[in-house]
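tool_call predict_complex ligand=phosphoric acid mono(formamide)ester
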Amino acid sequence: PGMSLMRHYLQFKDLRAEEYAYLFDRAASIKRRFKNYERYQPLQDRTLAMIFEKASTRTRVSFEAGMYQMGGSVVHLTTGDSQLGRAEPIEDSARVISRMVDLVMIRTYEQSKIERFAAHSRVPVINGLTNEYHPCQILADLFTFLEARGMDRRGAIDLDALKGRVVAWVGDGNNMANTWLQAAEILGFTVHVSTPSGYEIDPAVAGVKDAGCYRVFQDPHEACAGADLVTTDVWTSMGYEAENEARKAAFANWCVDSAMMARAKPDALFMHCLPAHRGEEVTAEVIDGPQSAVWDEAENRMHVQKALMEYLLLGRIG
Ligand code: CP
Ligand code: NVA
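tool_result ok
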């Protein structure tokens, strides 16, 4: 089933709400099997190529371990040790790599690059982070939120638990922020965004049509008021290192601290895609405190991506 139509996962809006409901359900089941040391290997003889043009810890480990756990194997490529760094056209790389593997994950700079790769690929392509989007991370963040706040009595995940929720985004209008907006539009919650001036979200880049899926706040404390989830990210994303000093000055008041968390709902969670810089975008008290979900969030990358890979390769199971 599902084999006829090839799907890519290049941005969050590539899947529909009912597909997310399915994926979260699968992720919960795949995670349970992993926790019980149950063998589950539907991807035997399948190969994932992982292409990294930027550094990674979580994305690499979660895709690589996840693929092996499902019985498959991986090929790891970086710009420096492949022809990608020597100006072989991305279209040619796509044609060649996709003839030898079953699935490709790419972490790169411009979204247009992953789109060009996908346009010339014979196999599904997954976005492992671009300048514009980080859909696998938001997949994990939403699953983590739903595990904590959206499980029914039988342990089934209820996607409707996201409806009407408020997610506070404090910091840069970056790939994570754009992806949160797409998720809000599809799944029916609201993002309260507060960025320093000059670092705002561009709704055209985020690619959202419904202006009601987010609200902009000058004051990050105001953005956190009544939030169900407070989340942030590094002040300087990969590829923007030259702006580091200017950003440090501009972002000084956009540090998630206990005062901000106190404005959110009492049971609000804190998330951060990691790596984190304690004392910059978040205090140690918050990220290492009782409301922080960051370690479950990181682990869940693996479980949701296993569900995603299974879906792209095998379609719906059962
Ligand atoms: N959150 C995330 O994508 O981490 P890595 O950069 O370590 O992959
Ligand atoms: N916004 C960050 C996320 C890192 C996982 C970056 O792009 O570097």
